[in-house]
Amino acid sequence: MIRDRYIPALFLVAAMALPAVAASGRVSITAEQVAAAINGTGMKVSANQVVLLADVMATISAPKLKVESMERWGDHQTKFRLDCVKNEECLPFFVAVRWSQAEPMPPVLADHSSTAISMAKPGSNSFIVRAGSPAVLLLDGDHIHIQLPVVCLENGAIGQTIRVASTDHRQSYTAQVGDGAVLRGKL
């Protein structure tokens, strides 16, 4: 009889523990980590200015972040695109940084009329493929040649290796950028 009273309690405890087990292995990226990455570019940003636009998760507790691009976003905000230095640690994500009336916007944003400024790599005008653009991936093996439509996950110039995903984003690949929107990979 006493045993029957404990069974519902055991189910309740197990149900409460499942989300904690499912969430293990993923760690939130904080505003402090984002501010540190932006400060690494020479801008002065505090964690209070950073607005995470979504919950951003990483596979480790303190991934090294890099600023890919920034874009003026209204009169007193800047939108930054960040990514982990090691691609397997997190997916690219966006944050907003609010500037107060007293704080000037960074000169690179205040003085340029273009809306987007790339911070990723020098010579960004030489990119053949851009993040989000469609491309064709040619996979070559010993006795097989596969041609797949993909979506680029990173900007890339000729000869660079970038990450791409199938159009349904279920599979990801690394590929070397060739001429046009043709990428090459190996099986």
In short:
The chain has helices spanning 2-23, 31-39, 107-110; strands at 27-28, 50-52, 57-58, 65-72, 77-84, 93-98, 116-118, 134-140, 145-152, 161-166, 172-177, 182-186. With 187 residues, the chain is of the alpha+beta class.
How would you sum up this structure, described in words?
The protein is α+β, with helices and mostly antiparallel strands and 187 residues long. It folds into 2 domains: 27-120, no CATH class; 125-186, SH3 type barrels (Roll). The protein is built from 3 helices and 12 strands, in the order αβαβββββαββββββ. It has helices spanning 2-23, 31-39, 107-110, and strands at residues 27-28, 50-52, 57-58, 65-72, 77-84, 93-98, 116-118, 134-140, 145-152, 161-166, 172-177, 182-186. The strands form 3 sheets. It has a 5-stranded antiparallel sheet with strand order 2-6-5-4-7. Residues 10-14, 17-23 and 108-124 have low confidence and may be disordered.
Topology:
Blueprint: H1 2-23, E1 27-28, H2 31-39, E2 50-52, E3 57-58, E4 65-72, E5 77-84, E6 93-98, H3 107-110, E7 116-118, E8 134-140, E9 145-152, E10 161-166, E11 172-177, E12 182-186
Parallel strand pairs: 8-12
Antiparallel strand pairs: 1-3, 2-6, 4-5, 4-7, 5-6, 8-9, 9-10, 10-11, 11-12
